[in-house]
Amino acid sequence: MPVTAVFLKVFRVVLEYGMLFWLLWFSVRLSRQIFGAVRREMRKSRAAETAASEAVLCVLGEGEPSLAGRRFAFGEQIAIGRGADNDIVIPESFVSHHHAVLFRHANQYVVEDLGSVNPTYVNDHPLKGRAYLRPGDVLRIGMVTFRFER
Amino acid sequence: MRKWTLMLAPIGILIAGLMVLYLKAHPTIGAVRPELFLGLSYFPWLAAAILIAFFVQGVLIHRGMDHLIFPTVLLLASVGIVEIARLKPALLAPQLRWLCIAMVALLVVLRLDSCIKRALDYPYLLGIACVGLLGLPLLFGTEIGGSRNWLVLGPMSIQPSEFGKILIVLFLAAYLSDHRRVLTLPSRRILFLRLPPVRFIAPLICIWSMAVLMFVVERDLGSALLFFGIAVIMTYMATGSRSYAFIAIVFIAAAAAISYTAFGHVRVRFDIWLDPWQDPNGQAYQVVQSLFAFAAGGVWGTGFGFGHPGFIPEVHTDFIFSAIAEEMGLIAALMIMACYIMIFWRALQITLACSREREMLLGAGISVLNLMQAFIIIAGVTKFLPLTGITLPFVSYGGSSMLSGFILLGMLLSLSKEQKHG
């Protein structure tokens, strides 16, 4: 029966390549499911980045009457010090002329101490150089306490 | 429904492969004759394995656990089963039986996950149990295939080192998460290394070296490398201190040099790796035949059932990757490696979503362990590293390896439930 023989031969070849096909199909499918989730997450985080391009410094407590209860919103950067050219002026002798600056780095904010005589405190730890800020972190400069919010 | 589609591929591979083998064994099919059903005695086990696999996937989806890793593991297992059916038909039914047992064990682990998490409160017991388990073959072991790491219990023989793997990951996760702060104390500086006081790292070093020593005595180099590697990587992951990694590299270099001069079998392995062509028909026969198999396979392979992987000794366990690469080619080999990497990727995602430190360490340990074991043996058979005999996880023939692999998988998957609820 040559017809059945040919048919069986063809069937066998199909099955042989079928195994490779299943392997390839599986890998493609799996990688699309796995990396599709990653891509969605990345897109979501990028969207969040553009929406939350603004941060706020809230003054806590009554340490300095001229600042009590104020909120400072900023985008790129904000400077803090005793000098009048700062965005937030703290008229105290403990505070240096250019005390500290907060600026944006990628989608996070960084606080940098500008070599002040009295330290800047981040969550009650003296700041050396720079640190990334997380929402809710508490900054203390002189007698004034700020809460960083986004 | 999308969560079920991946289950098609393992079943497709099983059916296609077993049918090819059946057609090869019965080249003429005319009228229905009784001898056509010869050699189909594995069929009940196959049906049982497929049913249990669907049940496990159902449980995973129902409980909101990760539904991508299990089909991938099944794909690897199905490729292994098909290749075993072609290489050693007598071992097909036992392998299917072990797959069923392993999947039932997976379900049991999923059920008992709270007990396992409680076991993490007792790191020293886990460590002692691990050393004890590894020490058993020294007392009661028998030598199979050159390494004295088998226990023969009546009709079956088990490999305690496969189960020691589970215990050492549990021990390291428990111990390191308890002592992470102490271990990162930079209290003493030797040259540029920062080390905590000796009494804090003593238990760790003790259990590492006991494990490695036992394997050297039992001549099980692959497991020694695996255990040492997992200990180092988990310590690094827990502490983030490069000093440990540096010390480990120095230590392993020294250990390798000492065992090269002291033990004949280590020297043989190393010399074969440097130049297999000095003795291609003698001691290097296995590696040389494996290299020939890769060459014969090429990109598309010789075709399933048309290669000659039978020339390689132990082809159904350690060298199954060469057989797959010969018969299904570079493409299948790459896809299998991609599967291991995607399991690793997914496992790390599960791990990073865990909330507690010890669970993160446990998940990371399991994911690294799987990938590292696959790497060590694939590197061994392709002569990228000196050959050290361990099984290719989920693919090779072997009950202990299948069972321990699925138990580890169960622990990993039960961590993924955590992620969904909180």
Explain what the structure shows.
The complex is a heterodimer of chains A (about 150) and B (about 425). Chain A is of the alpha+beta class and about 150 residues long. Helix content of chain A is about 35%, strand content about 30%. Chain A has 1 helix and 11 strands. Chain A has one helix at about 1-50; strands at about 55-60, 70-75, 75-80, 90, 100-105, 110-115, 120, 125, 130-135, 140, 145-150. In chain A, the strands form 2 sheets. Chain A has a 6-stranded antiparallel sheet with strand order 2-1-11-10-7-8, with no helix packed on it. In chain A, a hairpin with a 2-residue loop joins strand 7 (about 120) and strand 8. The longest helix of chain A has about 50 residues, at about 1-50. The radius of gyration of chain A is 30 Å and the shape is rod-shaped. Chain B is about 70% helix and about 5% strand. Chain B has helices at about 1-5, 10-25, 45-60, 70-85, 90-110, 115-120, 125-140, 160-185, 200-220, 220-240, 240-260, 265-275, 285-295, 320-355, 355-380, 400-420; strands at about 140-145, 145-155, 155-160, 190, 195. In chain B, the strands form 2 sheets. Chain B has a 3-stranded antiparallel sheet, covered by helices on one side. In chain B, strands 4-5 form a two-stranded antiparallel sheet. Chain B has one domain. Chain B contains 16 helices and 5 strands. In chain B, helix 3 (about 45-60) runs parallel beside helix 5, helix 9 packs antiparallel against helix 10 (about 220-240) and helix 10 runs antiparallel to helix 11 (about 240-260). Chain B is globular and about 80 Å long. By secondary structure, chain B is mainly α. Classes of the chains: A alpha+beta (about 150), B mainly alpha (about 425). The interface of A and B includes residues 4 and 29 of A.
